[in-house]
Known about the structure:
With 460 residues, the protein is an alpha/beta fold. It has 3 domains: 55 residues, no CATH class; 265 residues, Aspartate Aminotransferase, domain 2 (3-Layer(aba) Sandwich), CATH 3.40.640; 104 residues, Alpha-Beta Complex (Aspartate Aminotransferase, domain 1). It is globular.
Amino acid sequence: MNKPHPYMPNSVPDIKEKMIEEMGIKSIDDLYVDIPVGLRFERELDVPGPFTEAEVKKHVSGLLERNWGFAAPPFLGGGVWPHYVPAVVDEIVHRAEFLTSYTPYQPEISQGILQSIFEYQSLICELVGMDVANASMYDWATALGEASRMACRLTRRSRVLVPSIISPRRLSVLRSYTEPVDIEITQVDYDKTSGQLDLEDLKEKIGSDSASVYIENPSYLGFVEEGVEAIAEIAHDSKALFVVGVDPISLGLIKPPGEYGADIVIGEGQPLGNHMNFGGPLLGMFACKSDTKVIRQMPGRLIGVTQTLEDDRRAFTMTLQTREQHIRREKATSNICSNQALNALASAVYLSLMGPQGIKDLSELVSGRAHYAIRRLGELPGVRAPVFSSFHFKEFTVQFRDKTVEEVNQSLLDNRLHGGKSIVGEFPDLGETALFCVTESHTKEDIDRLAYALEEALEG
């Protein structure tokens, strides 16, 4: 394009020629010689325009007007859930000193954000029953990958055990983290009636090369693991670490992992004051016991508090920075650089606002509404809800006898309802099954509307 672009100063022909001369090339095409010819796009893009800014804005606004909202919050979970975010959370995280701040390095000028992360760490420790939490990971999946590598470093072993009922996306990320360092992943079977981890299979598969045993509680399919103490005992008898992944909202109702033998606790912090945001950014929680050897192998950053020498004021700073790649380089425990500080701040505000009793009340509310939904949907002809007999928290499986999940979900969409996540491809043995989610955002009327729409879909 010879004509200068109004927003690209370097598109002026004379300037382009000068830059080409300075780089010692004959044309811009010379910059792409490393790309095979067969992969290059050799023609103009079929894009309409050019348009003015006003014309583009009008066009995009017209597209947005074609969107329509759902009649109820989505019944879709599987890793990101429709929880209510109090207005005060958004008010605080949108303050300029937080919203525009990058990951802090200098304690002299970053006391506010450092304190907020310290408070987040403290609240997470109280919530999960552990001693030390880091300044956050990217999400639950990356926290799992880091926890597995951490366990292997601590035990000097090379195999991790995970349940067969695990989020396929988390398993995929785990494989990405473990394959480069030759860590083997072994999946443990489950009871086909209850969904509970098969303890006999665990005993058979665990061995002297096992670095960790990982469970999700509640599981990916929504039920609560009941034999957690026994699993912890089996892991520790083999000198392996016990790693537990949690939905933090459930901990108002379920015993925290620190009270049943967990060595490392991870999870997804999105339910704690973070919007769904089309799937991200998310917030990975990561906590462990206060063993110095263990803490020094923890990935990411850790914010500590001390006192000033002159006037005994509290001062916050990053501590144990020798773990970080900006100092240890290839010897670092992790390559994570930025953390999810703004998301962690949202969670700190949310937990401070809710308090222990608030989390307990919320947990009971979510569980109660989920069980009402289970009962309502389970009464429909041609429906089995849930598939497993265990106690479920906020997610549960719904199996359809005479319709496919795709057909059911399309019918729900026609009624402006977003149904559950299809797990047909993930767990084919379960047949035409979807994973539904109910939170405090769903009212009794929303659930009843879902039941009526499902009944209509099954009859159609």
